[in-house]
Design brief:
The chain is mostly beta strands and 121 residues long. The chain has a single domain (11-113), classed as Lipocalin. Helix content is 9%, strand content 43%. A hairpin with a 3-residue loop joins β1 and β2 (20-25).
Length: 121
């Protein structure tokens, strides 16, 4: 289990595969119209693609247009120490379309379903 880099009230499992489990923090979603800021946590059963055991990512989700952008991430070693971390300035970030059938599509749908007024994208 990941050492607690972000205190969350409710991490909700959104997808699971042999190599990883993916969670969203359902209590930390912040809305600005159709845009949601959210946290996604991935826990690997072994080591991840870059030797990490877990990754915590901050995303913006555009629920009206089914697109997203990654704002920041932190990768953790098995002992909970930080492996790498990065945050991009917002002016450098571009929106990306959500890929159908991806783990992130499932997370995006779960996040957008919590939108006041219901799911769109």
């Amino acid at each position: 289990m990941l050492a607690s880099p972000v205190e969350a009230s409710r991490w909700v499992l959104v997808a699971e595969a042999d190599s990883a489990k993916h969670f969203i923090d359902a209590d930390a979603i912040v809305w600005d119209g159709q845009i949601a800021s959210s946290w996604l946590r991935t826990e690997y059963s072994g080591r991840g693609p870059k030797e990490e055991s877990a990754v915590l990512e901050k995303w913006m989700n555009d629920c009206e247009n089914a697109r997203s952008k990654l704002l920041a991430f932190t990768s953790y070693k098995a002992d909970g120490s930080v492996l790498r971390s990065s945050q991009a300035p917002r002016y450098l970030l571009e929106w990306s379309e959500i890929k159908g059938g991806s783990t992130y599509q499932v997370a995006h749908q779960r996040i957008c379903a919590q939108r006041p007024g219901g799911e769109r994208g």
